[in-house]
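Q: I have 109 residues here and want to know how they pack in 3D. Can you give me a structure?
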Amino acid sequence: METNLFINYLTLTDRYKTINNWTDDTQQIIEAHGTFLKTLGEEGVLIFAGRTLLQPNHKNLFGIAVIKASSLDAAKQIFGKDPAIKAHIQQSLVLPFSMGIHYFDNLKE
């Protein structure tokens, strides 16, 4: 059986590319975003997630999350529940994804 994978390419909306626009509420929503992704992992939906380690105003700042879902529409619905997306802190592009080569065991020390 083939696993349907989908990648979510996340970027900050223009407002949040300026660090002065970040508030305590913004930070709490970003923390909720992390909790949301962690929960997807615990539910067996999330494969992996991460981000570039750059400042909010850097043109190459982005995050990705890869999930299993039954369809592109289902993946969009799942990612649409992300608190950072709902609050318009991040914008999302969800696309079908194929994991061709992986060496996850290389992450072990």
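Q: Anything worth noting?
A: Residues 5-95 form a domain with the Alpha-Beta Plaits fold (CATH 3.30.70.1060). The radius of gyration is 15 Å.
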